[in-house]
Amino acid sequence: MALPSPSDETKLLASVLAPLLEDFQYWFGRSLQLLEQTGSIGGLSTDQQAHLTERLRQALAETQTAAALLKATDGQVGVDTAQVMGWHRLVAECWALARRHRAASA
Question: How far is CA 41 from its chain centroid?
Answer without folding.
Answer: 20
